[in-house]
Amino acid sequence: MNSKLFGAILLIVGTTIGAGMLALPVATAQLGFWGSTGLLIGCWALMTACAFLFLEVNLWLPANSNLISMAGVTLGRPGQVVAWFFYLMLLYSILSAYIAGGGDLFRYVLSTWGVSLASSAASIIFTVLFGFVVYFVIRMVDYVNRGLMFGKMGALFLLILFIAPFVSMTNLDQGQLAHITSPSSITVTAVAFTCLMIIPSLRQYFEDDVESLRKAIFIGTLIPLVCYIAWDMVIMGVIPLHGTPGLKQIFNSPNANSDLVLALTSLLQSTTITMLVKFFTSICMATSFLSVSLSLSDFLSDGLRVAKKGIRGNSLILGMTFAPPVAVVLFYPDAFIRGLQYAGLSVFVLMVLLPPLMVWSGRYRLALATDTGSYRVRGGKFLLALIVVFGTLMIGTAVGLRA
After folding, report:
1. Are 326 and 124 in contact (CB under 8 A)?
2. Alpha-carbon dihedral of residues 194, 199, 200, 203, nearest 10 degrees?
3. Are 283 and 14 within 8 A, CB to CB?
4. How many alpha carbons lie under 13 Å from residue 346 in its C-beta half-sphere?
5. Tens-digit pLDDT profile for residues 152-189
6. CB atoms within 10 A of CB 205
7. What pTM value is reported for the model?
8. Residues near 13 by Cβ (< 8 Å), separated by ≥ 6?
9. Rounded to the nearest 10 degrees, what angle do helices 210-238 and 20-27 cross at?
10. Contact predicate 186/39, CB 8 Å
11. Which of 187, 183, 180, 181 minimizes the C-alpha distance to 340?
């Protein structure tokens, strides 16, 4: 494997594995380990297929084309408006979730040092601390994120290794497959595989080398699948579904992240594992917060045509980036799970429904794929129709959950 492909795979893995991973065993707890594994594999297959469809559309257009321009060319003005709205909704929902989760962990860590802090104050301080990093734009974010990524993957490996001996088969067999259609399970699991937005950047990185792009997407999404299954196994195998502490209780708690750490601490009674869990959950929040904040601030800067330069430009963009999600967290302290559920609705629109619709329009209505040698995802109209139907059903389910 060449270094370029290896680097691209790491980029996809880094984009995919984030704070949403912490919510997976909690949101899918009622399914049990075996049911959640089936759901993970299904969502991975769906999101990977949609990633390949996204790549096909992107290759029809000039380099630097992103989702907004892709939707505009293939679906017209309505498609562009839909992409704009749900992209903003996705980023704001995820950022709200990460501020809520990050503030919760920050409050918990301070409490272990004897410092008491209200949840609202912890969320604001967490946002200010890491928002300061975003203020200095991508160079500082890149350097901070590199170190955090190595720490995150190392901590995850050690956690799985240390917790695995405590896994109980009785706990793994809990849950019911009947909950496979649970909206919260499906939406949170779908969010855990979001990586489409990095594909245009990877295309430039590989200079339209389609074979390398396909390998990077497949391997880069397969690695998170393996990590998620292993993470679910150790968490569900140690923390029972019912009782106190129990995964069902944690799911209904406004402090899901700190309660998860507390549950592992009380059940395992291991100082090493407790330190690793605190380190891993904190890093997940930090890396995810930084990447999503930077993406949202760049999106707003480009869309509003306000340069992130000087105090005025930076303050305006960062204010629009952080003020709405902080306000959400202040009114909804349980915004971690709730925010990921709303993000799931946006994911189904942007990353499940739009790719097959764009491909259908480009192939069969606009004839954009006229070159016989151009990349084309197999499956024809049947695959496209199947994904559209599934995406529509999931959007309906997610809207019903919001209501």
Report:
1. yes
2. 170
3. no
4. 21
5. 888 899 999 999 999 999 999 887 776 666 777 888 88
6. 16
7. 0.85
8. 220, 223, 224
9. 50
10. yes
11. 187
